[in-house]
Structure formats: structure tokens, C-alpha cells
Amino acid sequence: MTVHRARLPVVAGLSTAVLTLALAACDTGQEPAYEGPTATVVSVATAQVGELRDVLTASGTIVPAPAADLIVYAPEPAEIVEMPKAVDEPVVTGDLLVRFDIASVNQAIATADLDVIQAQARLETARVELARQTDLHERGLTPRNMYDAARLEYSAAQTALVQAEGRRDRVVGAQDHAIVRSPFAGVIAATWHQVGDTVRPDRTDPILRVIDPTRVQAAVQLPVAQLARVVPGQVAVVRAIAGDADEPAVVASRAEATDPTAPTGEVRLSFTGPATLAIDTPLSVEILLDRRIDALVVPAQAIARDDFGPFVMVAGDDGLAHRRDVRLGIETPQRVEILDGIEAGDRVILSGLMEVEDQSPISIGR
Questions:
Q1: C-beta separation of 266 from 285 below 8 A
Q2: How do residues 100-151 score in pLDDT, each as one tens digit?
Q3: How far apart are CA 55 and CA 283, in angstroms?
Q4: CATH code at 154?
Q5: Distances from the Cα of 134 to the Cαs of 121, 122, 144, in angstroms?
Q6: Which domain holds residue 308?
Q7: How many structural domains are present in the chain?
Q8: Kind of pairing, strands 216-223 and 48-64?
């Protein structure tokens, strides 16, 4: 008890001193120092309604359309016996491009011809024998069975000749693939062989290429991840790298992903008007993947993500940051469509986003 009484005056003295200081502060008009969280300075952007275009950009090249591009290969091991057109020479539909001498076809035709000759000789022999047996039978000098046998042999010989001639016709018809004619008007773009060369039926051994330079497309190589978003019919714009005029086009075809390890796939675009660009012209291409007329959009840097999904931080009129979980639509590198979670006019936080939390104080900088 003696110890307690000795300390009471000290505590009372301290309380009096604190009270005196507080009263002095009130007398001088000074505010006590703020000891709460410091406001984070942030920049904001206003969510707005407007048009949002999701555009894919890539580089490409002008190439002949598939129906205007023909590379000739040998149908079988063969020798080139005729190739009348040289590089840059024009061709018209039906012009001879290449004629082959195919050893296997020649052998097949020779064999078929021999079969026909043998069948003709058999038929002639059967005809003579049938005439002889008919004469003998009518005079009663030969039995009926010999006459019947001669008739059967003559009929079989006729059938054998028809079959042999049919086989020869089929073999001769197969010789048609030894001659290649141009299926369209165009120009010889390249040759890799000449008359007298022996060629293989191999895609690594082309003979010549003919193209129609008036029918062209734009060819673009796209990463497989982007390829899945491209579909025929999408609107596009093509521009020569060295030019300044846009040419409208549409997606004509997209390569199917047959090889999952392939890094890219080809997309072809057809021009909606007359093509003015030459083959092999380098291009820049823009493909419109999607478009929203009245989209609620915010800058892409306003979007944050965590385990609960995407969200934005909204700068409230109360000077605090407020988390809003959002549902996203079209996403582009610059702007993102918000389908749900905020409204037009909301101010979303851009800079300082990592430093603010829900309900934390903020200060909007200039």
C-alpha cells in the first residue's frame, strides 16, 4: 500500500500535463495530427459507351488464287519429251504444257496390242473352223458335237477379242495423263526441267508452274492461337507495305489445324473489288474479328485479376477505392468491354492500382 501511494501523485501529474497540452492546442486553433492510413494517389478513367472493334493485324503476301495456280508433276517415273513453253510465256486454256514418255504405259500398251492381235488370230481360226464344220455337218460328214464345239469356240473367240480390245482402250486412255494441258489462261511462272530430263512422281520434283496473275489473293500466316478466331466471311483490309491505299477484302479460307505442333497456319483473303496488287507484293493486313456498337469500355490497364476472377477498382465519391467484380466481353490491347459489374460514368483506377485495396483512401492526381 505504501508503494501505491508513492506513485499516485506521479500519474496524476502526467494526466494534468497532458490535459494542459490539449487545452493549449485548443487555445491556439491547431488540429491534432491524422494518424490513419495515408491516401494513395491514383489516376482514373471514366467508363464510356462506344464502338469497340477487335482487329487482328498481320503481314502477308499477294499470291495466286488456288484455282489460278498449277504446278505440274510427273504422274509416274517418266522422261519429258515435249515442253514447248518457257518462263514468262503466255498460255491459253488447252495449251500443251508437258508431254511425258512413260515406260510403264508404253509397256502396257504393247502388251494390250499383242493381246488384241492374238485374240483376232484366234477368232479368225475359229471362224474358218466353224465354216468347215458347218459345211461338213450339212453334208452329214461330221457328227453334231463337233459342229457344236466349233460354234462354241467361235463365240468364245468373239468374247475374248471384245475383252482384249476393251483392255487396250483402257490402257490407251490411261496414256492421257502423259499429256498435261493448261486448264486456264495465264503465264509460265517457273520451270525446273527441260526436254530429255527424267522426272519422278514426287512433290519435291516439280516440272513447271503456270499462274493466272489476274486472279490473286492475300496469304497470311497466323499463330495457331489466333487462327482459331478467324472464320471465312470476316471483313478485312489489305494494304501494300510500300503503298497508302486500303483495299477491302474478306477471309476466303483458313487452314485446318492438322498438325498440333505447327506454330502457324495460313489464312487466304479474297479482294471484294478488282485486285491491283502484283504477285509477291508484301502486305499489311487487318482482319475485323468482332465489333460492338454500344459497348461499355474501359482502358485495358484498369483490369486486374485474382483467384476470384477479373475486377476493377472504382474511385468513389467518398474518397475510397471500391472493388467491383466484372464480366468481360471483347478484349483488345487498348480497351476492354465490360458486360457486367460497373456502369457508364464510373471512374476506374488506372495507375496505383496495385497499391489500393477495397475501402482504402485514395487521392485522384492530375
A1: no
A2: 998 777 778 888 889 999 999 999 999 999 999 998 988 888 899 999 999 9
A3: 16
A4: 1.10.287
A5: 20, 18, 10
A6: 40-52+294-364
A7: 4
A8: antiparallel
